[in-house]
Specification:
The chain has 323 residues and is mainly beta. The protein has 3 helices and 11 strands; from the N terminus they run E-H-H-E-E-E-E-E-E-E-E-H-E-E. The chain has helices at 41-54, 56-59, 210-216; strands spanning 27-31, 63-64, 90-99, 105-106, 111-115, 152-156, 162-168, 179-191, 194-207, 249-252, 262-270. The strands form 2 sheets. Strands 1, 2, 3, 4, 7, 10 and 11 form a 7-stranded mixed β-sheet that branches. A 4-stranded antiparallel β-sheet has the order 6-5-8-9, with no helix packed on it. A hairpin with a 5-residue loop joins strand 3 (90-99) and strand 4 (105-106). The model is unreliable at 1-57 and 283-321 (pLDDT under 50).
Length: 323
């Protein structure tokens, strides 16, 4: 297995109570920049502030949220490392939240929430949902990950609006391209290990360059999932807008060895007064992965097979069947 992460504080069978949530939506613009890959936190934060100012005109163009998809679960943990031992190519995300309505100034205290599938296309909470193609059962990965919480988490932005996550490069599932879901929350607070209250200012998705993704998918454990991968041009959500549409800027940790991992960066320009419904655009068409969540679902969480024809303008957490 490539790039194993281990978190001994969390086991697959540990009980976590999570509740299904309805979210709220507004718009945002996303602008990437190269220099935020500096490993020194002080340098990165200073660069982030300067870059946000320099890209102000782009940042001020607010964008409509895209669908949160059917695999959202409320109650994710506040933590930097969300892998829980899931195998895959390491991915470090550096994200900066700025106020696009106020000169792209940082939004300290904003809570950035992400969730994504594992290397074989499985989401926590839906570990028997068929990712399409041919893949081992999620239970065969050998990790100690909690089936309800892996690859989900929050981070709270520092004074420069910066958050950092340690995760793995996501796999894929039919009919979607490789992606990470994201929400930006403000006005709430950390409570009992998660984030409570406030409102959602943005619901969106991050995307990956096809060349990088397809190279990653030749490596273990990704290569055990065979089938037709959806490229960016054919994805139902990504609209081709580059960084402004969520395309991450990526930098290899080791240029000659992609298994060593990647760093990804994006600046999120939000309107802290906006509220997102989680419906957004995208998500029409395609056949969703089939199957129901394994075991006993979290309290209030979605159950059964994600719907195949939910309207994309609904405020329901299952606004898109295959996103």
């Amino acid at each position: 297995m490539t790039g194993n992460h281990k978190d001994k504080t969390i086991t697959r069978r540990r009980a976590i109570a999570v509740t299904g949530g309805t979210v709220a939506a507004g718009g945002l613009a996303i602008a990437g920049y190269q220099s935020a890959f500096a490993d020194d936190a002080t340098t990165a934060d200073a660069t982030a502030s300067a870059s946000a100012t320099s890209t102000g005109s782009e940042c001020m163009t607010l964008m409509t949220s895209v669908t949160e998809g059917p695999y959202y679960l409320d109650g994710a943990l506040v933590r930097k490392d969300i892998t829980e031992g899931k195998s895959g190519v390491p991915l470090t995300l550096r994200l900066t939240v700025v106020d696009a309505t106020d000169g792209c100034t940082p939004v300290p205290g904003a809570a950035v929430e992400i969730w994504h599938c594992d290397a074989w296309g499985y989401y926590s909470g839906y570990t028997t949902a068929n990712p399409g193609g041919s893949a081992p059962a999620e239970s065969e990965d050998g990790s100690t990950a909690n089936d309800q919480t892996y690859l989900r988490g929050y981070q709270i932005a520092n004074g420069n609006g910066v958050v950092k996550f340690e995760t793995i490069f996501p796999g894929w599932y039919t009919p979607r391209t490789c992606h990470i879901h994201v929400k930006v929350h403000t006005g709430g607070e950390k409570e009992d290990g998660t984030y409570e209250g406030g409102k959602v200012n943005y619901t969106g998705q991050f995307f990956f360059d096809d060349t990088v993704a397809e190279e990653i998918f030749t490596l273990e454990p990704y290569s055990q999932h065979s089938g037709s991968y959806t490229t960016l041009d054919n994805d139902m959500v990504y609209d081709g807008g580059g960084a402004s549409s969520g395309l991450l800027t990526l930098k290899a940790v080791h240029k000659k060895d992609p298994s060593k991992g990647y760093k990804g960066f994006l600046t999120l320009g939000v309107d802290p007064d906006a509220e997102s419904t989680g419906a957004g655009s995208g998500g029409v068409g395609g056949t969703p992965p089939s199957g129901a969540p394994t075991g006993t679902p979290p309290s209030g969480a979605p159950t059964g097979t994600p719907p195949s024809d939910a309207p994309t303008d609904s405020a329901s957490p299952s606004a898109s069947a295959s996103s």
